[in-house]
Design a protein that fits this description.
21% helix, single chain, 2 domains, six-stranded antiparallel sheet, eight-stranded parallel sheet
Length: 448
């Protein structure tokens, strides 16, 4: 094989911008639903709650950050304001906030304490500011409320340092005047871009909701929308999915749910169906009335991290010998082995115009496995449309799994088998397929 340098593959548009790429690389992030609902034992507040009920006497944001860091989580998104309109920060624009609570003598700022704790622990910070506000009298008077909302956005985006994700939902009920609010989304987005230009906007131009609250992406999950039919679509955009789910039945803390934490098997299934389907997992862990992450939640989070680490501890294909049906320009720079070298910036590539190809891995000896990991270098676009994985049984190649899209990461599970040679067959691709990772693992928990 030639060692000469060849022209690198051109990006297949659309591709992620730097904000989107950095967000996807976090993979696993957390939500913290916290506020007056924590003390009223409700999921949605009415907006008429007495601020004096908010008094988490043992609040310790450093405990939150410590647990999340140990769990392998990269960012915490806090509900700075939920639908009830109660603000976890002192706002100049409403009295419905912690400044009228007994907590910290009315001088506290939950958002600041969380921001400081995340910074100390090396976690990124995200903030959720609910557009729907059931307390604010101007809600439903569109011009006035939109100005109010942008003013509060200005507060949370200028006080707490870098914000990595701003989280919006589309909830929109009637205002006290019986009118429905018309949100100035473009104005909201512009405010974020002006004050936190590096932040991604969920529910806006950067990240989309996957469509359910179960933490489950589609089997075919494109980051390119609309889903591509051909090679390039000038109207398409890079619009990746975020999968939100709560570790408990509810989103806010309820003592009755202390024994209803999602099982380890359930969380692992979520992992494979979110991160393992080209999406980011947003797991909600609601602080309790003390202002702490509950012991049961913390224990399960650590078990979850340990179980994931056990699955992916050993990549049986790492640095294995590889062969391919075709290599770009015949160059070692894009050889089959680049998909097994563990380096995030190298990949197996084929010549332009080749849209089907195969990559064969020789593990050196027979090994047992039941999980495959595929990744594309998404900075060059999402390309693969259909693939299959085969194992050599001594006489013929036997299909063990079939899939469609790959994207940032695709994890496939199948019954445990033992083989020495495994082959990835790209059946269809928008352009020359590029594979940066082909890994094989044994999940010790899997029961076939």
């Amino acid at each position: 094989m030639s060692s000469r340098s060849v022209t690198a593959p051109a990006p297949l548009l659309p591709v992620p911008n730097p904000r989107q790429k950095a967000w996807q690389e976090m993979e696993y992030i957390a939500f913290a639903h916290f506020g007056v609902n924590t003390f009223t034992d409700r999921e949605w507040g009415e907006g008429d709650e007495d601020p004096t009920i908010f008094n988490p006497g043992q609040l310790d944001a450093r405990q939150w950050a410590s647990v999340l860091k140990e769990a392998g989580i990269k960012m915490l998104i806090l509900t700075a304001k939920h639908h009830d309109g109660f603000c976890l920060f002192p706002s100049r624009f409403t009295e419905h906030s912690i400044q009228n609570s007994p907590w910290r003598g009315g001088k506290g700022d939950v958002v600041k304490e969380v921001a400081d704790a995340c910074c100390e622990a090396g976690l990124k910070l995200g903030l959720y500011l609910s557009p729907w506000d059931r307390h604010e009298p101007t809600y439903g008077n569109s011009l006035a409320y939109n100005e109010y909302f942008k003013n509060q956005l200005g507060e949370i985006l200028t006080r707490y340092g870098p914000i990595t994700e701003v989280w919006f939902d589309g909830a929109c009920g009637e205002g006290p005047n019986g009118k429905r609010q018309e949100y100035d989304w473009e104005g909201f987005y512009a405010t974020v871009r002006r004050l936190q230009p590096e932040a991604v906007i969920f529910g806006g131009p950067d990240i989309r909701w996957v469509g359910n609250e179960d933490g489950v992406a589609r089997e075919t999950e494109w980051s390119v929308l609309p889903p591509p039919e051909g090679s390039e679509d000038p109207q398409a955009q890079w619009f990746p999915a975020e999968c939100d789910v709560s570790i408990r039945p509810g989103w806010f803390y309820h003592a009755r749910e202390d024994g209803q934490i999602k099982s380890l098997d359930h969380l692992l299934d979520v992992y494979f169906k979110s991160i393992g389907r080209n999406s980011v997992l947003l797991l909600n862990i609601p602080p309790d009335r003390r202002g702490l992450l509950h012991e049961n939640d913390a224990r399960r989070l650590i078990e979850f991290r340990e179980a994931v680490e056990a699955i992916f501890k050993t990549d049986l294909a790492r640095r294995a010998k590889g062969e391919a049906s075709q290599v770009r320009g015949g160059s070692a720079e894009y050889a089959a082995g680049r998909a097994m070298d563990g380096h995030p910036d190298t990949y197996w590539a084929v010549d332009d115009g080749v849209t089907s190809a195969w990559l064969e891995v020789d593990l050196g000896k027979e090994a047992s496995f039941n999980v495959a990991r595929l990744e594309e270098p998404v900075s060059l676009g999402q390309r693969v449309q259909a693939y299959r994985i085969e194992a050599w049984d001594g006489a013929a190649w036997k299909e063990i799994n079939r899939g469609t899209t790959v994207g940032y990461r695709k994890l496939d599970r199948f019954p445990t088998l033992t083989a020495r040679k495994v082959r990835l067959v790209i059946e269809k691709s928008r352009s020359g397929p590029l594979i940066r990772t082909f890994g094989l693992y044994l999940d010790p928990r899997r029961k076939d």
